[in-house]
Each structure stands twice: as C-alpha cells, then as structure tokens.
Amino acid sequence: MAETDKLNDNLEILLKEKKYLNALYLVQSWEKSRRGSSKKISGKLLLSLSQTYYFNNLYEKSKEYLSLYEKMHSNSCQGREYIRHKYRLLILEERAEQAIEFIRDELKRPMPESERYWLFLYLGKAHFWNGDYLDANRYFQKCYMYYLASNDNYMLGHTLYMMGYLTFQRSVFKDAEGHFNEALKNFRSSNKIHQAAHCLKMLSVIKYRTGRFHEAQKDLHLAKKDYQKLCSSNNVINCRLVLARIQMFQSKYDACKRILKETYRKAGELNHRRAQALSAEFLGEISYRKDQYKEAENWLEKALKLAEESAPRGDVAVEVYRRLADVKIALGQFSKADEMLAK
Length: 343
Hints:
The chain has about 350 residues and is mainly alpha-helical. It has helices at about 1-15, 20-35, 45-55, 60-70, 80-90, 95-105, 115-130, 135-150, 155-170, 175-190, 195-210, 215-230, 235-250, 255-270, 275-290, 295-310, 315-330, 335-340. α5 packs antiparallel against α6 (about 95-105) and α13 packs parallel to α15 (about 275-290). It is globular. About 40% of the residues are buried.
C-alpha cells in the first residue's frame, strides 16, 4: 500500500501542475512493474489513473479505470473530482443527455448550498453541450447571481466563461467579448493562469472573427505564453490553430499552410485527435479556396476519419461533412455531395 500511496501523491501533484506527460510516464512505469490484484488499489488512485489517461487523450484506458473505480468504490462516487471527471467523459462520448441525468441524480442528495450551485453550473454546461441553450442560460444566470454575491472569483469566472461561450456560439460577439473580459478579470484575481489563458484564446477568436487581426494576435500571444509556462502542449497547439485561422482570414494562405502542417504533425505525435482533425480540415479549406479540389478532398477525408474516430457526431465531423459536400459539388459528384449533407 505504501507504494501505491506514494504513486497517488506524486500523481496528484503532477496533475495539479498540469504535467500530464510526466504523470503518464509514471503510470506506465508502475503498470509494467506492478503485480497483484486491482482490489488493492485505492479509489483515490484509480481516479488519478483515469484522469492521467484522460489528460493524455487516451480515453479508452481512462474509461477502463473509471469503470473499475465505480465498481469497487461505489460508496465514494460523490466527490467533486469524480463528478467532474465523469462529466468530462460523458461529454467526450457525446452523451450530454446522460450527463444531465447524472448531475440531476447528484442534486437529489442533501448537500450544502455551495455544492448545489457547483452542480447547477455543471448542469448548465451539460445542457449547453446538448444544444439546450435556453436551459443552459437559465442555470448560468442563477449561478452568476449566487457567485457574484458570494465573492467566489474563481467560480464567478467559470460561470462568466460559460456565458461567454454560449453567446459566442449564438454569434452575439459583443456580449461574448464582455463576458470573456469579465471572466478574465476574475481568473486573474484568483490566480488561475490556465483559465485566464482560455479567456484570452477565446477573445482572440472573437477579434479575428470581427476583423481586429492585430488585437487578436496580441491576445493569442499572451494565451500561448501562459500555456507554455504550464507545459500545456495541447493548448499550445490550439493557439497555433487559431493563429492559422488569423492568417487565413487575411488570405495569407502560404503562412497558414505552414502552421497547419506543423500542427497536424505535432497533434498526431501527442494523439490529440481533435486538433489533428481541425488541422486537416483547415488544410482542406485552403486547398478548396485555391480551387485545388482533389487536394482539398484528400485533406478533408483525413479530417473526417480522425473526427469519426473520436467524436462521430461532434462539431468537427459536422463541419467536415459540410466542407466535403462543397468539394464534391466542385468535382461534379452531386450524389456524394447529397450523402455528405444528409450526414
């Protein structure tokens, strides 16, 4: 038990510091050397093992350890770490309706008011990912009023971030920008660098979408610096993807293509399927804009394969189907275009 306790302590530190690759090396070394039954593994360690695989984009192994945790430690399945992690995996699998039911069940037990509002926020997020924007907004507004009165800057920032994301998805960019700026202030005042970087990245996206390319690059540069400090390689790649979009919106296709080929390679090395799929999708978009339809088709088919492996009904797959339909029309393949649009 002493060995597994030490492993869990080390994993908790590495996960807190977002040193996910270091945590993975530690877990895989332990797995190679360990002997004996899984019954000897504590619930805390099983959860840490599942989280380690999740943050390294190895989702099947993450689900395997979470299932083991639920089977062996069912009485412990109530803490925030478990709920947050279970929620993430359900959303990843596009099971937002099950996430809603899961959180509603959690809300049935007696709990302090602070715990109830924490769950309300996650219920709002689950409704958001299910496309129930009115229900999501109702929970976000409720949480906003509560956290504003309680002076909890971190949770207020989290709520404002989701309000920003919701208005961004509805293309209400002015309101979204206001929410992200307020979220940024709250995250900075509570010294949450990672979450502040997310806000800067989203502000960058809004600014390039509204033609403020210089401002967009400044915000993106700040976000990337913070992610690099935290050794958050997935998010550094995501910043490079945003930079590629900024170049594309200014018709700087050669610069954009160089960035995307780099992100496609790096995301593949890190098993970051979503970023690799997006890289291939955007490379297909550049080829399409330059009337290079066969090349566009090749890139988009690579993007679709990656998207279908990770999230077949997700936003990346949907966008790739639409882009592929455009390419098929350009190639005169109208029945295939119909098939893509139907999907």
